[in-house]
Amino acid sequence: MSSRYQVAGSEGEFQAGSDGTVLANKLGISTVDEMNEAELVLLEQLYVDVLIDHFPDRALTANDLRDWHRRWLGNVYAWAGQERSVNMSKDGFLSPLPRRLQGFWTNGSANTCGSGHPAMT
Q1: Who contacts 7 (Cβ-Cβ below 8 Å, separation ≥6)?
Q2: Residue 30 and residue 42: Cα distance in Å, rounded?
Q3: pTM of the model
Q4: Residue closest to 68 by CA, chosen among 83, 50, 55
Q5: What φ, ψ does residue 19 adopt, rounded to 5°?
Q6: CB 86 within 8 Å of CB 97
Q7: What CATH code is assigned to 5-120?
């Protein structure tokens, strides 16, 4: 069975019993369908809180993104909300490369998100 994740580096550990299809997680989830459902439910909760109830009335910062990621997946993955040091893709979508994000995360509260930032190009 092929993995839906492509991860280079030591952070690419898979959940026991998942046949290499689900990343190691705190919940012990080992099926793709169950993980998809868990991530979707948590993402919906985050969307409501962030986009409807508490959207910042200022420019978004790296700290905002890091905090949102931690709040979304922190109960699932130990690495949620942390700076990623590996290249990762899921279902054909390549996440921003860590080398492109390095400076952005360094000064999280000072860096605002926008189309002109190197991490967004």
Answers
A1: 23, 86, 87, 88
A2: 17
A3: 0.72
A4: 50
A5: 60, 30
A6: no
A7: 1.10.3290.10
Q: Cite the DSSP H helix spans in 1-121.
A: 32-47, 62-73, 98-106
- pLDDT value of residue 1: 44
Residue 9 contacts residue 86 (beta carbons within 8 Å) = yes
Residue with tokens 């839906």: 4
For residue 9, pLDDT over 80 is answered with no
Q: Find out whether 25 and 15 touch, Cβ atoms under 8 Å.
A: yes
Considering only residues 104 and 44, tell me which one the structure prediction assigns the higher pLDDT.
44
- The three-state DSSP-derived secondary structure of 6-21 is EECCCCCCECCCCCCC
Provide φ and ψ at 46, rounded to 5°.
Answer: -65, -45
pLDDT, one tens digit per residue, over 34-76 is 999 999 999 999 999 998 999 888 888 888 988 999 999 999 9
